[in-house]
Amino acid sequence: MLTLRLLNRGVSWVGGIVKRPLPPNVADNRAIVTAFGRKGLFAYSSGSPASSNELMWLSAFATEEPPSRDSITIKEIAADVRKRYGAWGDPVVRDIVSTAPIETVYPIWVLPDLPHWGQDGIVLVGDAAHAMSPTTAQGACQALEDAQALALLLCETLRKAYDSGEKLDKGADIWPQKERDAVELSIRLLFTIRSPRVSGIAEAGRQLDRKRRNLTRFKEYAMYLFLWLMFRLSSLGK
Ligand SMILES: Cc1cc2nc3c(=O)[nH]c(=O)nc-3n(C[C@H](O)[C@H](O)[C@H](O)COP(=O)(O)OP(=O)(O)OC[C@H]3O[C@@H](n4cnc5c(N)ncnc54)[C@H](O)[C@@H]3O)c2cc1C
């Protein structure tokens, strides 16, 4: 049996959609604008076709304890978000936090590395198998990779089972043992192939979260310098 114990990352997020004209870099370049600061991360992009003028936004920030309705009210969360980002340089961020309705806050929970991802015909993929910090920006990507890997494995193992020469009664009520074995093998191989990659990405996310938690001013400027250098060097290479 698999026991799942969710871990709190000490990070929460708020977000939603605001109805407003899209900033030119979002409308023209389909950009996702992401800003990192000492007290959190803020991102916005188009939430639907540019013509509908909907800006999707989210902000993630450190919260030592997972916020709950007993410990903090939505009003307090909204006031905190406005205080946190109300003086940021980007006028779009200031506009969003001053007008966006904030209805809830989501603590971020992740899974520890699991010993396997399924058995007896049941398989976990995506967040069910490896919910990771959104800092990685990889959760949905890894879910898609799982789906593709599992489809390829099932295709191959089942094809081998059907090609084995032994007649399989596909119409029978009882699940033929050969098919059952092929599915079990696929589930085991999925874990063997995918789990090292996924746990490496999850660990990178844990490290980033630790580093980004309420940065000191010195670390904040070191991060800006690093990001500036990174973009500068990559544009020099073009
Ligand atoms: C703030 C934030 C930012 C993120 N940014 C990125 C990013 O930039 N890039 C990226 O790749 N990933 C990102 N992610 C992660 C990404 O959203 C998830 O990893 C991804 O959605 C996981 O997909 P999933 O299909 O495994 O699970 P989910 O998207 O959670 O889908 C599970 C579905 O099952 C439904 N469900 C649950 N229980 C039942 C039930 N009993 N019966 C029927 N249905 C049920 C749920 O309603 C849900 O629709 C981010 C996550 C967060 C929170």
TrEMBL record:
Molecular functions per Gene Ontology: FAD binding; monooxygenase activity
Domain of life: Eukaryota
Keyword Membrane belongs to the record: no
Domain FAD-binding as annotated: residue spans: 43-162
Family matches, as InterPro entries: FAD-bd, FAD-dep_Monooxygenase_BioMet, FAD/NAD-bd_sf
SUPFAM superfamilies found in the cross-reference section: FAD/NAD(P)-binding domain
N-terminal signal peptide: none
Keywords, alphabetical: FAD, Flavoprotein, Monooxygenase, Oxidoreductase
Family of the protein in this entry: Belongs to the paxM FAD-dependent monooxygenase family.
Identification of the protein by name: FAD-binding domain-containing protein
Organism this protein belongs to: Canariomyces notabilis
